[in-house]
Amino acid sequence: xxxxxxxxxxxxxxxxxxxxxxxxxxxxxxxxxxxxxxxxxxxxxxxxxxxxxxxxxxxxxxxxxxxxxxxxxxxxxxxxxxxxxxxxxxxxxxxxxxxxxxxxxxxxxxxxxxxxxxxxxxxxxxxxxxxxxxxxxxxxxxxxxxxxxxxxxxxxxxxxxxxxxxxxxxxxxxxxx
Length: 177
Fold this sequence. Notes:
The protein is mainly alpha-helical. It contains 6 helices and 2 strands, in the order ααααααββ. It has helices spanning 5-18, 38-56, 66-101, 104-109, 113-129, 133-153, and strands at residues 158-162, 170-174. The longest helix has 36 residues, at 66-101. The mean pLDDT is 90.
């Protein structure tokens, strides 16, 4: 007896119940063709700023009041959560551009794309694991290199401008034609 559409639906539901499908996320499945490393740069600067704030945070003295200890823990927790969130955002933005925008032709013309992307993803993971300011600065540097490479693939010239953020640093921007 051949399978009917209704029996296939039942079978698919059974398979989904035993092995639920994974939720997947994507920048754009159209594809829209709109990509920009700006968000990765802002997130990298945010990671750097959070490491700066963590480094400046004075630990309470041994005889500190409970509310002072609580305030310290709250600040440290918030700074850490924001740092980790933005480290992950860097990774997400880079993965989307690397996986969805860059083509085999780009890789031929710019053979460093894959190595730079891989190193950048590893560096973003490293910034999640610790609070070393030098690691955050290296992340910013790598994201800037990635941004410059990205704009080169579009035939755009770039320059760096001061970010004017409390973290300092620069942003790579395209030069208008």
